[in-house]
Amino acid sequence: MSFVFTWLRLSSNRLLDWQRCFSYQPRDITWAQQQVAERMTEKARSSSDPAVRMYARMIMRKLSRGGGNGDEIRMGILNIMRDHGIKEGSRGGLDEPFLEQWHQKLHQATSPEDVIIAEAYLAFLHSANHDDWWRVLADNGLSKGQIESWEQPITALPMHLPQLIPPIQHYHWVLKTCHSGAELDTALTCAQGFVDPDLRCCCRNCHIVTNAPAAGAAHAVGCTFLIKRSRHRPGLKYN
Question: What DSSP state is assigned to residue 24?
Fold first, then answer.
């Protein structure tokens, strides 16, 4: 387990490649991620070895959830381009090189970096300032050299098309459901169908306050404490 932890930690820190000299469809990577996540969850829950449980929990901090609808990653970006008259392959329309390059990456090598790209793209669409594009990438550990060196590189800067904000916001969520299992919004939403009503209410409240900065960090910490305490409440039933 220590080897698996080291391997996945280096991968999450982008010190190991996800893929090299081959491509894969989104549904393939979502399936593979789900298999790893489920096996680590089982190890963390039921292993008789405390060290194995410890390593499994540490692995899950950075592990993508996987699962979901991998084909929605592939079709989602195509539908955005087609619905807004953007050129895709031989199909005519507005020539937007950035979206064409990102679309090719999503089809052949989607990865957690796509969540960051979507966030950076949304920041740019809101401001029309490419400095925001580079800022969000840099804040999340991606540089110009890195995105241009991928096998499916992104070398073009995005065009300002503010009408894409709503569909890209939805697409950002699609990417997070696959690649960001440790991200709080995704984790809370996915957990609500498996816990009792009281704990589900705590999850919902925590979700609300973490998306409303004015509520204050203390409120968010309080909700998190209630969720943790509820997990150990006698008689708690998971659905």
Answer: -
Q: What is the pLDDT of residues 177-234, one digit of tens each?
A: 877 755 566 666 666 666 677 777 766 666 665 555 555 555 555 555 555 555 544 4
Burial of residue 110 (CB within 10 Å: 0-12, 13-18, 19+) is buried
Q: Cα dihedral angle (36, 40, 46, 49), rounded to 10 degrees?
A: 130
Judge contact between 192 and 160, C-beta under 8 A.
no
Residue 131 CA to residue 136 CA, distance in Å, equals 9
Distance, CA of 161 to CA of 158 (rounded, Å): 9
CA 57 to chain centre: 19
**CA angle (103 as vertex; 79, 66 as ends), nearest 5:** 85
Residue among 214, 87, 90 nearest 161 (CA): 87
Q: Is 124 exposed, middle or buried (0-12, 13-18, 19+ CB in 10 A)?
A: buried
* Secondary structure (3-state) at 233: coil
pLDDT tens-digit map of 128-146 = 999 999 999 999 989 999 9
Q: Measuring CA to CA, which residue among 7, 102, 120 is closest to residue 63? A: 7
In contact, 94 and 86? CB cutoff 8 Å? yes
